[in-house]
Amino acid sequence: MVNPHIPKLPLPAPLVGTEVGSFTEFTVTQRMPAIARRVIAENKFPSQINQSLEKLAAELPTGYLPTLADDTGADFTAWEQYLEPYKGQRWVDVPWFFAETYFYRLILDITNYFRPGELQGIDPFELQKAQGLEASLDSIISLCSQVDKWLDESKKAGKSNQASVIALLYFALWGNRVDLSLWSAFEDDRSRFDIQNQLTHILVDDAFSVSELLTSAKGGSIDFVIDNAGFELICDLCFVDFLLGSGLVNEVYLHLKPHPTFVSDAMIKDVHYTINFLAAGSHPKVKSFTERLQANIASGKLVLTEDYFWTSPLAFWEIPSALKGELAKSSLIVVKGDANYRRLLGDRHWDYTTNIADIVSYLPAPMVALRTLKSEVAAGLKAKNVAEVAKSDPDWLTGGQWGVLQLVV
Ligand SMILES: O=P(O)(O)OC[C@H]1O[C@](O)(CO)[C@@H](O)[C@@H]1O
Fold it and tell me: 105, 259, 342, 349: which one has the fewest Cβ atoms less than 10 Å from its Cβ?
């Protein structure tokens, strides 16, 4: 009998850092140490904390998982259980998704994020997040002006244009190219892209079916499992603004991270910071965008919510039943970004042509994944496309230049 709570298919092995030459190995042994060192460089933590961060960075390539101290974090007891099966193992031996989520949780332990005191609540990635937002200001102005027009048109026509929904889906997809754990906000502005040119870079494109689902299911609520702050968050908020403003949906829930993680992942405070930052600017279309968002938050149409599941090492099918119950009310669950996609697939070695609906068979509502590829995990691709893209771009799985927009109903 099929179990509705887990994937239909037997689980393949998880990605691990011992896979020689893989992006996973590169991440655990090189990218993660670099991220820990960037936390030292971009903050003014006391030298004792910096020494501990440096120790963490140095141990990642060959060292063993340290224990987690009881730093008063609400998720401490849960982490003790998550750690149990991996005690005494090296960073490169444990499942990659576990290694990454634990690494970010340890940074918070080291920097006293949860402990009462003057460092409590200091986001170690604050500078990167703020920079990411400021660097994309021109693109933000263009997008907000466009959304304003679309909202106007939909009001005049008395219905929303499906083409606007599709365009906003593409923005929400390509906004995900901006990820500060891969590309520092100081290196590049990745918010500039051309939606039309990017179409050839979408490996699975269910945008039309998603737009049909949204335009036919008038009213109701949708859930966004949010990924990065910065330009990606703006793209998501523009989409939300349009969905609420055109009356396509009545309520939107944004699921945000309860603590800093994966460098740029958005928390509730980042949404407020973003809105306040833009509201303080002078562009009228950007200002009206922020006013609509503020009004929607105040009226309860736009709900900002967080859960420790989103920062846990658990696969998506291990979602707590209360949270799953919340998602069950949704007309559509929008799952943003690479790390959330990895969670959907349990960060495992599925054959890339596996039917994604046979893996993500456990969700209580329709789901669309909007993800640019930044890790060696995929499903639902056509063998022909895999062969072609692998030939044209050797880094197609990890370079963030290719995307999928996959609907599972
Ligand atoms: O912001 P996103 O799209 O979740 O990307 C983060 C992902 O990218 C990486 O930095 C590269 O794989 C991972 O660590 C993580 O899966």
Answer: 349
Mean pLDDT confidence for 200-219: 91
Check pLDDT > 90 for residue 123: yes
> Ligand 1 in contact with 100 (CB < 6 A)?
yes
**How far apart are the C-alpha atoms of 338 and 77, rounded to whole Å?**
27
Ligand 1 pocket check for 262: Cβ under 6 Å = yes
Closest atom of ligand 1 to 228 CA is 1
pTM (2 decimals)? 0.95
347 CB less than 6 Å from ligand 1? no
Q: How far apart are CA 100 and CA 16, in angstroms?
A: 11
Note the residue count of the chain. 409
| CATH H superfamily, domain 125-408 | Uncharacterised protein PF01937, DUF89, domain 3 (3.40.50.10880)
Burial 56-92 (b: 16+ CB within 10 A, else e): bbebbbeeebbebeebebebeebbeebbeebeeebbb
DSSP one-letter string for 139-197: HHHHHHHHHHHHHHHHHHHTS--HHHHHHHHHHHHHGGG--TTTS-TTT--TT---HHH
* Paired sense of beta strands 367-372 and 251-256, if any: unpaired
Intervals of CATH 3.40.50.10880 along the chain = 125-408
Task: Tell whether ligand 1 has an atom less than 6 A from the beta carbon of residue 25.
Answer: no
> H helices of 231-382, where?
231-245, 268-279, 284-299, 321-327, 338-344, 356-359
Distance CA 390, CA 372 (A): 15
Tell whether ligand 1 has an atom less than 6 A from the beta carbon of residue 261. Answer: no
Report the chain's mean pLDDT, rounded to a whole number.
93
374 C-alpha to ligand 1 centroid (Å):
6
| 342 close to ligand 1 (CB < 6 Angstrom) | yes
- Residue 15's beta-bridge partner residues? none
CA distance 101 to 82: 11
Q: Measure 167 CA to ligand 1 centroid, in angstroms.
A: 24
Q: Which atom of ligand 1 is nearest to the CA of 340?
A: 4
Q: Is the CB of 338 under 6 A from ligand 1?
A: yes
Complex confidence, ipTM: 0.95
Q: What does the pLDDT read at residue 110?
A: 98
Tell me the residue type at 59. E
C-alpha 181 – ligand 1 centre gap (Å): 7
CA of 182 to the centre of ligand 1 (A): 7
